[in-house]
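Q: How would the structure tokens look for this protein?
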Amino acid sequence: MSTTPELHSDIDLRELVISLLAGDEDVATVNARATDMVYRSEVRTAAEELAHVAFVRGDRAALHTAHWVLSDIYEWCFSLPSIDQVDSLVSEILDDIRTVLENAMLADLRGKLDDGGLDSAPQDPESFLPWYRNFISSHRASNHPFYRDFLENRASVEDIRFYLAQETSLDPRFDDILSLLTVGTDGSEKMELVTNLWDELGNGSPDEVHTAVFAKTLADAGVSKSFVDTNIMLESLICGNVSAALALSRRHCYKAFGYFGVTEYLTPRRFRSYIVGCKRMGLPKSSYVYHDQHIQIDARHGPAWFKNILLPVISREPRCASDIALGTVMRLETSAWYLDALQAKLEPAG
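A: Here is the predicted structure in token form.
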């Protein structure tokens, strides 16, 4: 975990967020701070300073800190509040920090994307789907050597353990993400999202809920929370934070439809490579039962996502095609960066 970089503000955002989430101060104290506009302004200023150093100046230590802060806040967003905090206004302070860092993160990402192909994205729904499939399939993230070569042929048991730790940035909350994407949808979009969610929930069987199966996979592999916190890469945090940002903010819902459509489409082929590697090493089925489930399920959900979500959404509002396309490239590019970093970490050149 990176240390906090030298900043001018007297407020250490990471320490502040950890303290707020831990409930170190009573509700009355937190609420007094939340209604103190001078204090709120100081917090926003500290967030803006961190955002500038991290995302404009590109300081890697600051970047780690910014993404850890966002990751902590997103973890809170996807959790039930403590009964001791139900009357707390802590969300108002956290939202100030989140808004500043999230906007800076997405602006930085937008500036780094290789989005030259987006100009060709059609607004006609019947033309969009073939373009969308081809755009995904032709991107280097679609057939990345980390999966098709390294995992299948050379990864060790420790490499698998490290890889599983990185995957915790998205997999444990995907059912909640689907729930959030369902809000406000109608017709085939809602039905597809709910069908997908029901599969994530093990079709009503608690033991088959995918988050529970994934948690067991982690436990069997010895991937504890402390192991994750110690070993998770910056690129993994970025993927998880972008995923959370798109799911939680309604203004990004069309980007999210494109972004998570890529996830559904690529999961089966990626997880097949993972299973090939596990079988090569003679690992027990418990190490890949989660992945085997998703191969079967997402083979259906990928094409259905295109047909039942993207097609009707663009048919109703053609202008959203550009946002869907942007979300698509956001997922592909961040995924490629993540896999590049993962392979470089586990199989350094030379």
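Residues 180 and 305 are 16 Å apart (CA to CA).

The mean pLDDT is 92.

Upvote if useful.
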